[in-house]
Design a protein that fits this description.
heterodimer, A: about 70 residues, mainly alpha, 2 domains, 2 helices, 2 strands, about 60% helix, B: about 300 residues, 9 helices, about 0% strand
Chain lengths: ~70, ~300
């Protein structure tokens, strides 16, 4: 236990093989904060726009190259 | 319902069933969203053939067309994502999906646009190589097949889904080969249908029908390009449905859902055969009762 309190086995809860008291468990549960998806959205949208832009450029480049071959 | 083990034929078989369930209005929606993209693609190739050697001097014209194509690609990708959802719903329920097919998660759509834009870029870069483009097509198919798996927006997870399903590469390769052949079958059918329509239209007066014969002939480059665009649009619903079914079946194999479904089917077959057996026994008993009653009647002296 993190708080080093003395507790009976009925009052303690085992989590990942470690015994915790109720308050320590509550703190541990509160500590798991969901990461905001804003950065993921910015990344996905930004990369999509970049790849679409590059796709358009490469389309012209490849097309011009192939048209020059025939 | 997963009915048969994972194989190319089973995927194609179930895909055909799913397409028949989603034909109206979802396949029509897919075609409507793909129409501007395919039309502009044909225009772009026509422009390239037109400018030929001096293509590098027409960068602005080709670039402008390419930019508009990219905008129409986003519309086409949204249509594909909605159709993939409709296919998944149809495969899961065995009935035609309703309005819920529209409710595609924004995260799934965003991830799909990312993966599709990457495969498009890879496809154009590898156009010179013989192997590179088909590989990009396979990945594009898996990207549309795994659209619904992206529950949260992420840069890496959509690619992880694609690579996980690309491990058993034989079936996606076989599907790509089948649809490559199907493209020419669709092309021939479309050309025949267009010829028939032109011939029938020539019977109606009031417009320049003889000119149509010239326009709708293989000698007209634009007509041939539009035929190819049309053939791609015809094959596209089957291609998307096949990829959705493949991903679904492969996932079911991994999670053991196919075994569960197989046991359910066996159990239902067993129940059905038990019912049949009990029905047969009952009818046998009835028949023997009737015979016994007849014999008893015969034994009674007149």
């Amino acid at each position: 236990m993190k708080c080093t309190k003395m507790l009976c086995q009925e009052c303690a809860t085992q989590w990942d093989g470690i015994w915790h008291c109720a308050s320590c468990l509550g703190t541990a549960r509160g500590a798991t904060v969901e990461r905001s998806p804003v950065f993921a959205w910015i990344g996905v949208v930004g990369l999509s726009l970049l790849f679409l832009y590059l796709g358009a450029r490469v389309m012209v480049w490849t097309g011009a190259m192939i048209a020059g071959l025939f | 319902m997963i009915r048969t083990p994972l194989s190319t034929t089973s995927v194609l078989d179930e895909a055909a069933e799913v397409v028949s369930l989603t034909a109206s209005p979802w396949a029509a929606l897919l075609m409507a969203t793909a129409l501007p993209y395919r039309f502009l693609q044909a225009l772009f190739i026509d422009q390239l053939i037109e400018v030929h050697d001096s293509a590098s001097s027409y960068g602005n014209l080709l670039g402008a067309t390419a930019n508009v194509i990219v905008i129409t690609i986003v519309i086409a990708l949204a249509g594909r994502a909605i159709y993939a959802r409709a296919c998944r719903l149809a495969a899961a329920r065995g009935t035609a999906p309703g309005r819920e097919a529209w409710r595609i998660r924004p995260a799934a759509l965003a991830c799909y646009i990312l993966t599709a834009s990457v495969t498009m870029l890879v496809g154009y870069v590898s156009l010179f190589t013989i192997v590179g483009y088909p590989i990009a097509v396979i990945f594009a198919g898996l990207a549309v097949g795994t659209v619904e798996m992206n529950e949260r927006v992420s840069v890496t997870r959509p690619f992880a889904h694609i690579f996980r399903h690309a491990k058993t590469v034989a079936i996606p390769v076989a599907l790509t080969m089948v649809f490559f052949c199907a493209l020419f079958v669709a092309l021939a059918n479309l050309a025949a249908a267009a010829s028939l329509a032109t011939w029938l239209a020539s019977a109606i007066g009031g417009f320049d029908a003889p000119n149509w014969q010239v326009l709708f002939s293989p000698g007209n480059r634009r007509y041939v390009l539009l035929l190819f665009a049309g053939a791609l649009m015809i094959v596209e619903p089957f291609w998307i449905a096949a990829n959705v079914i493949y991903v679904r079946k492969a996932g079911a194999e991994e999670s053991g859902d196919d075994l569960r479904a197989w046991f359910d089917e066996l159990r239902s077959d067993e129940l059905r055969s038990d019912e049949l057996r009990s029905d047969e026994l009952r009818s046998d008993e009835l028949r023997s009762d009737e015979l016994r009653a007849g014999e008893e009647l015969k034994e009674v002296p007149a």
